[in-house]
Design brief:
mainly alpha, globular, 145 residues
């Protein structure tokens, strides 16, 4: 019986794939928006903080992180170059986890690495599956996922 139900369920549920990717892209883009804007509002303080936690070339890296995050917000929202922008955003999450969150454990409530890990996993999905049909990637490049 399950052998008959599973293919039917899979066919029905697969119709939600592009909508799920679209909504996930918007949620992740929104999650990067505030940190990007906070960085840009006082890039000097961010550079000082980056230096204090041992990030090399803190001013350069503050500008790179803020630029990448803001570019990510725009590109993820549009579904444009989604696979490509996901990679540097994953790097930012790895740096955030290793420099800030790892020492606090897993729990988001303790400033642990839970939330950055979830962002990194969503970004890995975007890098692997693309933006979905509700995207400029699909419109311009025919990216099927």
């Amino acid at each position: 019986m399950l052998q008959n139900i599973y293919p039917l369920a899979k066919n029905i549920l697969s119709y939600g794939q592009s909508l799920s990717l679209f909504l996930a892209r918007l949620a992740v883009a929104y999650g990067f928006y505030e940190p990007a804007m906070q960085k840009w509002s006082d890039i000097g303080s961010v550079a000082t903080w980056f230096g204090s936690i041992g990030i090399p070339f803190p001013t350069l890296n503050a500008y790179m992180a803020a630029s990448t995050e803001l570019t990510g917000v725009i590109l993820l929202s549009l579904g444009l170059f989604t696979r490509l922008i996901s990679i540097p955003l994953m790097v930012i999450m790895v740096v955030a986890i290793t420099t800030v969150h790892l020492a606090h454990g897993f729990s988001a409530g303790d400033n642990g690495f839970e939330i950055p890990l979830y962002y990194m996993l969503f970004l890995a999905i975007f890098a692997s599956f693309g933006a979905g049909k509700f995207s400029l990637d699909h419109l311009l490049f025919g990216d099927e996922q």
